[in-house]
Amino acid sequence: MSFVEGSSIGTNILFVILIQSAIIGYYYFIHRFERKTKIREWIDAVAFAVVAATLIRTFFIEAYTIPTPSMEKSLLVGDFLFVSKVNYGARAPITPLSFPFAHNTLPLVGGKSYIEWPHMPYFRLPGFQKIKNNDVVVFNYPGRPGEIDDKRPVDKKENYIKRCLAIPGDSIEVKDRQVYINGVATENPEKMQFAYMVRIKPEAFVKNGMFDEKKLIDFFLRYDIAPTELRLVHDADILIPMDTKKTDELRNDPAIAYVDTAWDFIKDVFSTGIYPNGSTWKVDNYGPLWVPKEGVTITLDTTTYMLYSRVIKDYEGNASFEFKDGVYYLNGDPIKTYTFKQDYYFLMGDNRHNSLDSRFWGFVPEDHIVGKALFTWMSLDPNETNFFKKIRWNRLFRGIN
C-alpha cells in the first residue's frame, strides 16, 4: 500500500490522537470550568461545525467542481461532484495545519493556505476496493519538473480528475487513437471525444450580405457545441472536439462541407511535450509503456532510465538517482536493478485531444490518489445566462462511469 516504514504509520496515529485529545480537553475545560455565554455557545457551534466538516471532507466524502473540459462529454465544465475517500481508503493529511476549506490558496487575499510544518509521512487507511481500469479518479496533479505543483506538498497540489486506463503492472499502448491494455483493445467511454477538422460552407451563415458569427454560434449550439469549443484554424476550417455520433450528424448537415480526422494536424500540434522527454511517441500513437508496480524489480538500462528515472528520483523518497560514466547510482551507491516502493497509475481524459494527462507528465503515484468520483449532484452551464436554463436538470444526481 505504501513505501512508508511502519514507524511512520505510528507517527500518523500519534498525531491524530494528540489532535483529538486537544479538542476533547478544550471542550472538557469550557464545559467544566467556564460559564457559557451566548457568544461562547455560538463560537462552540461554529468550531464544532468546522471540525466535523473537516473530518468528513478528509476521511469520507468531499465535493469538487469540474473547471476544464478535459473529461467532456463524460463530465462537463460546471459539474459539481461528490468524491468518495473511503472506496480506495482515506489518505491521512500530509500537511495537517491549513486554513479550513481552502485547498492551497487563501481566499480573497491569496498566498499559501497551509503551513508546511509538521510534514507528516504518507499513510492511507484501508479501503474496500482497489482502483480498477476505467475508474474515474480524483488525484493530486504530479506536475512537470519546474512547475509550481512540483514544489508543493503532495496533498496541496492541484486536484485533477481523469479516467484510470492502466493500473500497476499493466502495459498500455495507443495505436491510431485506440487504447490497448496488455495487448487487448479497451472499451471506449461512450462520450469520448477527439478533435475533428470541420469545414463550413460560409454561404450558409450569411445574413444581409455579410457573414453572421451569431448564426454560426447558434448553429453549433444546436449540436451542443459551445463557442468555447470552436477553434478557427484557417478560413472556413474549425477544429472541434466531438464524439463519433456528432461527427456523423455534422457530415450529413448541408451547411458543412466535410468533417476530417485531421491526423497530421493533431500529430504536429498536440504532440509537443510528450512523456518521457526524448521519446518519439504521439498523442494518438503512444507506447507501449509498462506501469510500475510496488515490489517489482526492473533492470536498469538506457530505455528504463528514460522511462522511469523521474519516478525513481521524485516519487520514491530517494535522495538522488543518476547515470554517470556508464553506471547508475542510487543515493550515491552503484546499482544495476531497482525495486519500486509504491504503485503507479496511467490516467487520461475522455476529451483525448484537449486533456493534459499521463501522456504528458507520466505516472500518478499511489500517494497522490485522492478518491473515486461517485456522482454529479449539481451542474451549471457556464455559457447560459438565463438562471432557470443554467441548471442542467438532466445531470443532477447522475452516476459517473
Short characterization:
The protein is an alpha+beta fold and 401 residues long. It has helices spanning 6-33, 38-59, 213-221, 244-251, 263-269, 302-315, 358-361, 387-390, and strands at 61-65, 79-84, 136-140, 159-166, 171-175, 178-181, 184-185, 194-200, 206-207, 210-211, 231-234, 237-242, 256-260, 286-290, 297-299, 321-324, 327-330, 333-335, 337-339, 344-348, 364-365, 369-379, 398-399. The protein is built from eight helices and 23 strands.
As for the CATH topology of the domain at 194-267, it is Alpha-Beta Plaits
Strand content: 25-35%
Give the number of helices.
Answer: 8
CATH class of the domain at 194-267: Alpha Beta
Unreliably modeled segments: 1-9
Query: What is the rounded Rg?
Result: 25 Å
- Assigned CATH architecture of the domain at 194-267: 2-Layer Sandwich
Shape type: globular
How much helix, percentage-wise, in residues?
Answer: 10-25%
Could you report the average pLDDT, rounded to the nearest whole number?
A: 89
Say what oligomer this is.
Answer: single chain
Structural class: alpha+beta
Distance between the termini: 25 Å
How many strand segments?
Answer: 23
Largest sheet: 8 strands, antiparallel
Would you write up a description of this structure?
With 401 residues, the chain is α+β, with helices and mostly antiparallel strands. It has a domain of 74 residues: Alpha-Beta Plaits, CATH 3.30.70. It has 8 helices and 23 strands. Strands 1, 2, 3, 4, 20, 21, 22 and 23 form an 8-stranded antiparallel β-sheet that branches. A 4-stranded antiparallel β-sheet has the order 7-6-5-14, with no helix packed on it. A 4-stranded antiparallel β-sheet has the order 11-12-8-13. β16 and β17 form a beta hairpin. The chain starts with 5 loop residues before the first helix and ends with a strand. The N terminus is likely disordered.
